[in-house]
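Quick entry, no commentary yet.
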Amino acid sequence: MTAQGPQSRRRALFMVNPRARGGSLPLEAVRAVLETEFDLLETPLPPPGELSDLLRARADEVDLVILGGGDGTLNAAASGLYDTQLPLGVLPLGTANDFGRTLAIPTDPLAAARVILAHPPRFIDLGDVNGHPFLNVASIGFSADLARALTREAKRYFGVVGYGIVAARLLIQSRLFTAYIEHDGTAEAVRTLQVSVGNGRHYGGGMTVEASATADDGQLDFYSLEVDHWWRLLALLPSLRAGTQGQWDDVRAFRTKKVVVRTSRPRPVNTDGELVTYTPAHFSIRPAAIRVHAPPQTVTRSGSGEQNSSQPLAEGTP
């Protein structure tokens, strides 16, 4: 970290992914807001595999990192943020922006910039699969197939609609596979369309891993879609969006800190929209792993009891 004198300004490493869906938006007003408090050290975004190395190399020069991009960009930075403990400011410029939605960071870049100024960084957890950290959700099965099939161009030009178009085509072709699940002293074999392990609340451009999940609860939320017909999944969609799918008989759901998923042949694991490893997949939680400028968690009342949630900052807040 840089040394801070009484009157010194914090230095922010500022990077924007130009290939993100919102990466070509004009950001002059965003820069102007950020420059009221930070000296911006703007640098081109390196390839995903080099982003965390860049953060480690420049950690002594700056006090925080501000990233403009989607969930894939943030995922690429997670390892470097964990190692350097540099706070993160998020400008959601991607297709789904699930991490930002989990933390109630506005999708409007100017409002998101105001969040960075208005709220100090707070600790959140990271999920981990085979040594790869993730922010939102890791999946095996249908979501991994979708991530492989959904081209960057489709995400950029068709947005969340692109997910639906490709997903519908894949869903009709999908087949169940056998997964061997080990957690909390139990082991079971299941026939499933997809298993998902969530650190945060949202994923997949509108899905919710579990209604009460937060990114700082120290837990992983697991579910397995054990449906036998693709049309059954259509009936599940409202619950998948609300995060209440665990109430269905053909969905296995539990909360844990560690879980292992094995398959008869290696299957890719999708983390935050990127394929990073293969089964066997060892999942764990890294509690209070990184710090992010975001509104604080509050407790609100719901019909089923208390639930943690983030309260978003109004866009007019300075």
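second:
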Amino acid sequence: MEKGLSGKRIVVGGSRKLEEISTLIEKQGGIPVVRSLQGTVFLAEKEVEPDLVEFIEQGADWVIFTTGIGIETLLNIAAKLGLEEAFIDKIRMAKVASRGYKSLSALKKLQIEPIVTADDGTTKGLVRAFEGIDFTGKRVMLQLHGETAPALTQYLEEQGAEVQKILPYQHIEPETETVKTLCEELKNQECDAVCFTTAVQVRSLFNYAKQHNYAHELVEAFKGHTLAVAVGKVTLEALKEEGIDRVLAPENERMGAMIITLANYYLKASC
């Protein structure tokens, strides 16, 4: 029986469940190549405290939450500072927007109902939902998670908002040598597909490429020989923002489903 990934070099950009995902690629006949683009996401408690206090003191017209864990972490930090109730009060006094179902769930626990939600759990969906809202001169607190959501920040600032970004979890870039190696492999058409499991991985790759003036070559690689694969909508959106239009993504946002979807893609292409 023909296997979908027979002889294909499949790059894995993540850092979690590497053994499982590599085994799955091998079972489908592929050659797993680990190039971790994830770096380290760490809890920046001390770094975020001044930003949190500033928000509690000044408040905001709008509060935008992008992750459930981000909300919970900010609540925990506020509680350690003895400011949990004050933090919740400031959220309630603002207009609230939520990107995904996890942030929506965390807000429901606080009995806070956002007035704006993304229809598809993506930043682009959130921007669509903001259409017609006047942000001129409005103070916006934007909670992020490791990844800085440049498109959303740019949109809000272009609409006249004053944006305060709060990142309870911050990102340290991956090993330079790893990113450099993958860039060379992409330029030399040595990868059949690259599997991205977070938006952070996409940013790490393209930030490095932009710094070294060959982001365009990467986009061309993904247009041609190499297929970009995203585990879910947020990662897919990050790839699109970098100019990659040909992206494969599974319906079920799981790593296993991503590999099976990729194998099926190649099987159909060979028919």
